[in-house]
Amino acid sequence: MGDPVPLLYTGFLLFLIGQMTVAGRQIQQELSRTALYADLALTDPLTGLPNRRSLERRLEAHYVGQVRAPRTGARTGPPASPLGVLMIDIDLFKQVNDTHGHEVGDRVLVALGQTLRSCARAGDLVSRWGGEEFLLLAPGDRARLTRIGGRIQQALAGQAWPETLPRVTVSIGAALSEESSDAAGLLDLADRRLYRAKHTGRARMNMDPAETLHGTDGLHTKSGRAGSHAPAGLTHRPPAVELTASS
């Protein structure tokens, strides 16, 4: 008759291994659930795009490492690589909801999100900022932002959307990270340029020099912040892309 001790020892080891396997599986499941919840917290449920919180994190991270000078408030850290933001707003979107209903309006938002994704490149981030407003973050300079804005307008002009969806246009306000010392200022500048694009006819992108946007005489943005009034001799105005009367 064999010694029972090795058998008991072996059985105990197998029991421990089984318990560890179960515990490991439970931990893995919990980690997966945590990751899923974190992902959902950063995703817009309608369009599947990153949401406002996700974009704010990315934008704030861009300015991290640049310390403000005590007196001037200027960033003194190593210069960050150029980053541009395009604030994109559907023109006359309320009319879409009023005429076709909110279900169709939601489908337009989803379709626009897909269009913006198709116009983005590796390293860009497309997010739904809220309502009918989207943001696109893109590394690069003024020329690259202009190209992206052009791609978006052209894609919408030629978009083969389902017949049940109304055609829409967008207005875009663009700004570069070098034009602001922080994320809030960059977004504010893009927002004011977006309003300027709306005010000058819609279906266009505005990236007027920052100095033309300082000082107001009665214009306000949708968010209630003071907007801009560019000089009468405004020269920088990308060509409008006119679509249908329903836009």
From TrEMBL:
Transmembrane parts of this sequence: none
Residue intervals of the GGDEF domain: 81-210
InterPro entries: Diguanylate_Cyclase, GGDEF_dom, Nucleotide_cyclase, Rev_trsase/Diguanyl_cyclase
Top-rank taxon, per record: Bacteria
Pfam families tied to this protein: GGDEF
Xref: PROSITE patterns: GGDEF
Region of interest (Disordered), ranges: 207-247
NCBIfam families linked: GGDEF (TIGR00254)
PANTHER family per UniProt: DIGUANYLATE CYCLASE DGCM-RELATED, REGULATORY COMPONENTS OF SENSORY TRANSDUCTION SYSTEM
Protein name per Swiss-Prot or TrEMBL: GGDEF domain-containing protein
